[in-house]
Structures are given as structure tokens and as C-alpha cells.
Amino acid sequence: MADKLTNQERRLLQVLAEESHYLSAENLAISLQVSKRSIYNYLNSVSRKLINAGIVPPRNINGAGYYLTSDSKLSVHDLLATKTDEADSRVHRVSPSERRNILLVALFAGERDITITRLMRITGVARNTVISDLDWARKELNNNQIELVGTKEGHVLKGEEILIRNYFQTHFSALMDGYEWLRKYRANDSFFEGKDTVGLNTMLNDWLHLVERQSERAFSDDAIRMIEFYYAFVLMRVLSGHFIPQNSFPSNLEDRRELRDKKEFGLASNLLAQVGVEVTNHDAESLYLESLLLSGQLRSVGSDEQDDVKTKVYSAAIEVVDSFQQITGFSFYDRSQLISELYVHLLSTYYRVKYQRQYRDGMVKAIEANYPDIYTYTELSIRPFEKLNAHPLNENELSLIAIYFGSQMYQDESHLGSALLVCSTGLGTSRMLKAQLESAFKGLKIVGPITKRNYNSIRQISEDIVLSTIPLSKKNKSVLVLQPIMNDQEISDLTKQLAVKGIVMPTLPANKISALLDVISDNAEIINQTSLITGIKEVLSFSVKPYSKKERGYQPLLSELINEHTIQFAKANHMNWQQAIALAAEPLLVSGSVEQSYIDAMITNVHNNGPYINIGDRIAFAHARPEEGVNELGMALLCLDKPINLLDDKHPIQLVFVLAASDDRSHLKALAELASMLGDKRRLHQLLDATKISEVEDVIAEGEKQL
């Protein structure tokens, strides 16, 4: 080709050549991670170069997007297969982030030949660039109490072994990226040359199947991938002589005893013995590997009445669901299923919290943006589970739990067509995606979710299509890859693809499409009728609106609701919890925000449902249904000088919040603020110690400065 294509132009053509439907400039911009203006420039340049080469350039359907004809796709595939000198010189060039990931993965594996010369040869960059990467790594690791030391043999890590492992587990994705680059482009010349990494992974895969059978735990596909990969590198460190000191993990003696009593301890010891580690001298390693097993995301778990942790987590799951129902007033259509699935998720969450391994990568933004109410209610309901470890959950763990509630709240039971759903993550993510799909496509029956392993074992797919969160090998039905949490644009794109395949109906019925074809054939020559029908269906499907968010309206800040007009202080002497709720709500009654019937309903709820309004350390959150006497949105706070009992001495309360919600959304911003404030121990203690209205207002204002 006379006019050489740039890297970005090649990527653009590759995306267009691999797609079976139209792509908008916005979608192309997202795929290439550039601006829409750049996309238009690339399209103009590519079109000119393709025309010069005798290839029909990308076509544009107004309002739909860009596509390549079938002939053009074939020509483009041939063109991309013939690499130019320019492309060849860049195809394996390592990016700055990849270089740093390669450095990290080599350091973690305990390799000793990490010299500047070796880094230059493997990554193909100059000496100064390698030195710059080492300086970056040194600062990054120092921030985590790990030292990067240069020796004659190369660079090595110094520091507490548990801190080194915690850092690299937290940055697991970077490890994967660095290793995959080496495996793909430097398989014959990498830091792991001569090491049997494939053999380790095979051994670990077999071992995990044994673990699942003997421990009655079934891991998610993502968990198995993580365990296999991370364990392989932990074993490399162990075989290089980097051990966790005896009696140092876990730090608590009782925790060590608890771990030794579990089946997983023997299984972890068996793995270490297989690679030649003397377990009796290094049982801290067995405990460490066991703790990772227990923290892995599960799909199912067997019943074991003798396991005290399982009993506590199951009871906490029931309490969390009860609390969520009481706060929201929502009745779950299948409460027992929700409790069962939430219990399975919380069991691994329990160990992640216990051993400081909470997820850092999650779906927080997607959940908070699309389901802010569910996220906030989850944050307020999770206290019974947090008490088990006396430690709060981070946003990522909360978002995963919110998915379980969301999947039931948005469930729709009307089904017609069929699609098989495959998901590599936990049950909650799968159920949320399933609920989204069923809500968006009312006539589509979603079968599953199943795991990739289940999918691979099926010979024939009976459903009309396969929808998956991960790439799959195609069987007898097409596979479409989706995001675990889809936004409006992604659902719209999926609608087009399903319409083209005839799985969902476009705006016009089939007889109208036939009529439209008749008109076209009367006035124009049809070269490819199949392609024309596909195009018509896709264009017509654009007007389908499968999902639309509710208008949220105005949502006041917490300071607009809890202020000098609604904050009170009182002595706790001779006051019971009923009087405290009534007194706390008095400003709302005086202002006309609520009727007396609402105060009576809040008190009756506690009598009927127990101390569910105790949502934290000395905190009561009283509320009832809007129809029980709410005239307008309001919140109030009563601060007592000392705690009083809510029903019994197991539930002391000192801060009594009252919420009068007039609908299901207007209070969400204030509620989210409140949850954040009460989850911050420092700010909570400031509230408990406050003696003046201005002090409470200052605590609230501090949080709002960060909004």
C-alpha cells in the first residue's frame, strides 16, 4: 500500500473489520481512547488511503454510524495481515505502564538478575529510561514500607515479607499485565526463562479442583484465575527463600488456632509439600495460603453446622436483609434466595476483611451512578455484618453487596425469548446483569448465570444467543460480550445487535420491513438482499429505548435538613427510647412535615420488628413509610448526654436521627452524607461529644466540603 497506515488508523480499521453492526463516532472514540474529532480525522485519512488502494472506504449511515462492506472487510483483513515496516517497528514496543508492571512482576517473583542491562534488553528501551523506571519503583515501594535495593546480581526487595505480598496482591492486575506482556512478546528471553511457570499453573489448577471437592466450596472463574496466578508467584518467592516468619501470620494467636482447625489448612500444607517446602518449619506459609483460599470469591458453599464462622455469617446475612427491608420498606420476591446468595458472598468477604484484603477494584462508580438509592441503603444496612470483624467495609465491597439487593429489586418475571448468560464473577454481579437485561428486554428469557467452566462442558447451546462478561469460544450459537454493569449506551448497542439477529423486534413489525423492501426493490437494484435486511433492522432498532433512568429531581444536602431548626440536645435521665423518638421528631411535627401518626408508626415499627433502627455505635435511625403521615421531606437529630437502651441493654443509643421521606429518592443525597459521616469514627465521636448546635453543623459541613 503506497500510503502507509499509522498505528491508530490500523486500529480503527481493525475495529470496523471485526464488528458486525454499525459503530458511532462516539463508540469508535471509546474503543481507541481518543476524541471524536480525532476519529473524524482518522476516518478522512483512512478513506483517502483505502480509495487509493482500490478498497471501498468506511460508509456512514446518518444517525447510525460507520461500517465496512463485506468485500472491504476481506480486503482490510488482508491489508492488516501485511505489516508495514512502520507497524513492525512498533507492534511489540512496551508502554511506560507495561515496563513498570514487568519490573514489579520480576521483583515479586524473587528474581535476582534484574539488572539495568537485562531490563534494557527485554523492554527495548534506553538505559536512562530503565533508570527512571527503577526510581519510580523505589519511591512507590518506599511508600509501602518496602525497599528496592541494588546489588551486584541485580535489584531485590527488602522488607517484611507480609508487607511485600500485601502490596503485590493489591496490585494484582499490574502483575498480570506485566507477566502477559512477557509471555506474549518475550517468551524466549524473559526473567522467567527456564522456570516451569506453566507446570506450576497446571499443578495449581489440579489442586484447586481437589480443594473444591474436599472443602465443598465452588469458586468463581475470576477467583480461580487469581488464585492460580497469584499462588504461582507466591510459590516462586517461597522457592527463592522468601518465607513468612513463624508465628507471625495471622498476628492473633486465636486466629491461627482457628485456621489450623479448618480443612483448608491441610490442603494448603499439601500444596507446599508438593513443591518441597518443609511444612513443619514453615506452617505460617500454610496459614497464609489458606487465608487466600478462604478470601476467594465463591459461587456456592456446602453446609457445615460445626463451622462457627459460617453460622455467624449466615445470621448476619439474615440481619442485613431484614435491616434493608425495614429501612426501605421493600418486600423481596424471593427473600430466602437473596439470603442464601448473600451468605455465600459474605463468607469470603468476612475473610477478606479479617485479613485486610478488601477489594480495591470494583464497580463503585457504576453502582453509585446508576443505583445510588440501593448503594446508600446497603451502606446503612450492613452494620450487622461489619460487627463480626469490628471493621467497616470499603466502597468496593459495599458496591458488590449492593448488587445482590439491586438484582432482586429490579427483577422482572415476564419472559419470552431466550439467552444464556455466562459470568466469571460472583453471583451478585451475575444477578445484577441478569436483572438489567430482563428489565431492558421484557420479552427475553435469561437462562443462568453459569460459569465459563459450565459453558465449556456444554456441547450444544439450546438458547438463541450467549451473553457473556468474558470472551468465549463459539459453539453452535453466537456469543456477545457485555460489561458486568451496562450503561445506557451499552444497552442501546446490545439492542441493535439483538435486533439484527432477530432476537428482539425492531420498532417496525416484520410485515412493515417486507413492505419497505418492496418499495426499495421497485426503485433501486438490490445487490445483497440479506445485508439490506440486516441494515434495515439495525437502523429501525435505534428508536428502541430499552432503559431509562427515573428523573431524580432535587435532592437537598444533609445541612439543609439537619440544622439549627431540627437539632436538639437533651438529658437522658428517666427518658426511654419511645420518648426519645417522639422528642427527636418534634421539630418535624411543629413545622408540619409530619403528622402525629408518623411518630406513632416509627415507635410501632420498633415494637413489631425489634431494634433494627440501631444502625451503628449508639446510633438510632428512626423512620416509617411516607404514607403513614409524611407531608414533606424532613430530617431531625436528638443528641442525648448519655446512652439509653433501645428495647434492651444490647442496643444503647445516644444519637437519634429521624427521617421523614416524602418519596423514594429526594432524601438520597442527604442519606448518603449521613452514612458517610456515621462511618467515619472520628466524625462520629465528634457528634457524640457535641454539646452545641454549631458543633454538629461543623461536623456536617466538613463532609460537604468534599462533595
Automatic annotation (TrEMBL):
Domain annotation PTS EIIA type-2: ranges: 560-703
Gene Ontology molecular functions: transferase activity
UniProt cross-references to InterPro entries, sorted A to Z: BglG_antiterminators, PRD, PRD_sf, PTrfase/Anion_transptr, PTS_EIIA_type-2_dom, PTS_EIIB-like_sf, PTS_EIIB_2, WH-like_DNA-bd_sf
SUPFAM superfamilies the record matches: Phoshotransferase/anion transport protein (SSF55804), PTS system IIB component-like (SSF52794), PTS-regulatory domain, PRD (SSF63520)
Keywords in alphabetical order: Repeat, Transcription, Transcription regulation, Transferase
Listed name of the protein: PRD domain-containing protein
Domain PRD per the UniProt entry, residue ranges: 308-415
